[in-house]
Amino acid sequence: MLHLFPLLWGLGFITHPVAVDGKSLFTDKKCNKCHTIESQGIAVLPKANADEEEDEGSEPKDLSHVGSDHDVAQIKQWLQRTLEKDGKKHKKKFVGSDEELDAIAQWLVSLK
Fold first, then answer.
1. C-alpha of 111 from chain center
2. Distance (Å) of CA 19 to CA 43, 80, 82, 96, 102
3. Domain spans of the chain?
Protein backbone atom coordinates (compact mmCIF):
# COMPACT_ATOMS: atom_id res chain seq x y z
CA MET A 1 0.00 0.00 0.00
CA LEU A 2 2.86 2.39 0.74
CA HIS A 3 4.07 1.91 -2.82
CA LEU A 4 0.82 3.37 -4.13
CA PHE A 5 1.11 6.56 -2.10
CA PRO A 6 3.67 8.29 -4.40
CA LEU A 7 1.58 7.32 -7.43
CA LEU A 8 -1.63 8.65 -5.92
CA TRP A 9 0.15 11.76 -4.67
CA GLY A 10 1.45 12.44 -8.20
CA LEU A 11 -2.05 12.17 -9.66
CA GLY A 12 -3.00 15.25 -7.69
CA PHE A 13 -0.78 17.33 -9.97
CA ILE A 14 -2.47 16.33 -13.19
CA THR A 15 -4.18 19.42 -14.49
CA HIS A 16 -7.48 19.55 -16.21
CA PRO A 17 -7.86 21.77 -19.25
CA VAL A 18 -8.80 25.28 -18.27
CA ALA A 19 -11.87 26.63 -19.98
CA VAL A 20 -11.01 29.39 -22.41
CA ASP A 21 -12.69 32.68 -21.49
CA GLY A 22 -14.18 34.49 -24.49
CA LYS A 23 -14.21 37.89 -22.79
CA SER A 24 -10.52 37.67 -21.89
CA LEU A 25 -9.66 36.47 -25.38
CA PHE A 26 -11.57 39.40 -26.87
CA THR A 27 -9.22 41.83 -25.14
CA ASP A 28 -6.11 39.60 -25.37
CA LYS A 29 -6.55 39.33 -29.15
CA LYS A 30 -7.08 43.12 -29.23
CA CYS A 31 -10.52 42.89 -30.80
CA ASN A 32 -11.17 46.12 -28.91
CA LYS A 33 -8.87 47.97 -31.30
CA CYS A 34 -11.94 48.25 -33.53
CA HIS A 35 -14.88 47.19 -31.34
CA THR A 36 -16.39 48.18 -28.01
CA ILE A 37 -18.73 46.23 -25.80
CA GLU A 38 -20.28 48.92 -23.66
CA SER A 39 -22.49 46.44 -21.80
CA GLN A 40 -19.32 44.70 -20.56
CA GLY A 41 -17.31 47.87 -19.90
CA ILE A 42 -14.92 47.18 -22.78
CA ALA A 43 -13.79 50.40 -24.46
CA VAL A 44 -11.86 50.77 -27.68
CA LEU A 45 -8.09 50.80 -27.29
CA PRO A 46 -6.42 54.14 -27.94
CA LYS A 47 -4.51 54.52 -31.20
CA ALA A 48 -0.83 53.57 -30.85
CA ASN A 49 0.26 56.83 -32.44
CA ALA A 50 -1.18 59.87 -34.14
CA ASP A 51 0.01 58.64 -37.54
CA GLU A 52 -2.28 55.60 -37.58
CA GLU A 53 -4.63 55.78 -40.51
CA GLU A 54 -8.24 56.51 -39.77
CA ASP A 55 -10.47 53.87 -41.32
CA GLU A 56 -13.62 54.63 -43.24
CA GLY A 57 -16.36 54.80 -40.66
CA SER A 58 -13.75 54.65 -37.93
CA GLU A 59 -16.35 54.93 -35.18
CA PRO A 60 -15.87 51.76 -33.11
CA LYS A 61 -18.69 49.24 -33.52
CA ASP A 62 -20.43 48.37 -30.24
CA LEU A 63 -21.07 44.62 -30.04
CA SER A 64 -23.17 44.75 -26.86
CA HIS A 65 -26.12 43.03 -28.56
CA VAL A 66 -24.42 41.07 -31.35
CA GLY A 67 -25.89 37.81 -30.03
CA SER A 68 -29.40 39.05 -30.76
CA ASP A 69 -28.74 39.02 -34.49
CA HIS A 70 -26.12 36.31 -35.06
CA ASP A 71 -25.44 32.71 -34.08
CA VAL A 72 -22.13 31.01 -33.25
CA ALA A 73 -21.62 29.66 -36.78
CA GLN A 74 -22.15 33.08 -38.36
CA ILE A 75 -19.73 34.78 -35.98
CA LYS A 76 -17.08 32.12 -36.55
CA GLN A 77 -17.46 32.39 -40.34
CA TRP A 78 -17.31 36.19 -40.13
CA LEU A 79 -14.12 36.12 -38.05
CA GLN A 80 -12.57 33.57 -40.43
CA ARG A 81 -13.50 35.83 -43.36
CA THR A 82 -15.62 33.17 -45.07
CA LEU A 83 -18.85 35.16 -44.67
CA GLU A 84 -19.71 38.52 -46.22
CA LYS A 85 -22.07 41.10 -44.82
CA ASP A 86 -23.25 43.87 -47.15
CA GLY A 87 -20.54 42.81 -49.61
CA LYS A 88 -17.77 43.15 -47.01
CA LYS A 89 -15.72 40.75 -44.92
CA HIS A 90 -14.28 41.21 -41.45
CA LYS A 91 -11.22 43.41 -41.67
CA LYS A 92 -8.78 40.87 -40.21
CA LYS A 93 -8.88 37.09 -40.20
CA PHE A 94 -8.97 35.59 -36.71
CA VAL A 95 -5.61 34.23 -35.62
CA GLY A 96 -5.87 31.61 -32.91
CA SER A 97 -6.92 28.07 -32.16
CA ASP A 98 -10.31 26.57 -32.95
CA GLU A 99 -10.95 26.46 -29.19
CA GLU A 100 -10.25 30.20 -28.90
CA LEU A 101 -12.44 31.02 -31.90
CA ASP A 102 -15.27 28.96 -30.43
CA ALA A 103 -14.88 30.63 -27.02
CA ILE A 104 -15.05 34.14 -28.48
CA ALA A 105 -18.02 33.24 -30.70
CA GLN A 106 -19.89 31.58 -27.81
CA TRP A 107 -19.27 34.60 -25.60
CA LEU A 108 -20.33 37.09 -28.27
CA VAL A 109 -23.57 35.16 -28.88
CA SER A 110 -24.34 35.45 -25.17
CA LEU A 111 -24.43 39.25 -25.54
CA LYS A 112 -28.08 40.07 -26.15
1. 12
2. 24, 22, 26, 15, 11
3. 18-109
Answer yes or no: is pLDDT of 38 > 90: yes
DSSP code string of 36-75:
EBGGGTBPPPPPSSTTSPPPTT-SPEE-TTGGGT--HHHH
> 22-42: buried (b, 16+ CB within 10 Å) or exposed (e) per residue?
bbebbeebebbbbbbbeeeeb
Non-local CB neighbours of 55 within 8 Å, separated by 6+ positions = 34, 91
Rounded CA-CA distance 36/46 in Å is 12
Domain 18-109 in CATH 3.40.50: no
pTM for this predicted structure: 0.75
Question: Does residue 105 contact residue 77 with C-beta atoms inside 8 Å?
Answer: no
User: According to the model, what pLDDT value does residue 47 have?
Assistant: 79
Tens-place pLDDT, residues 48-63? 765 555 555 578 899 9
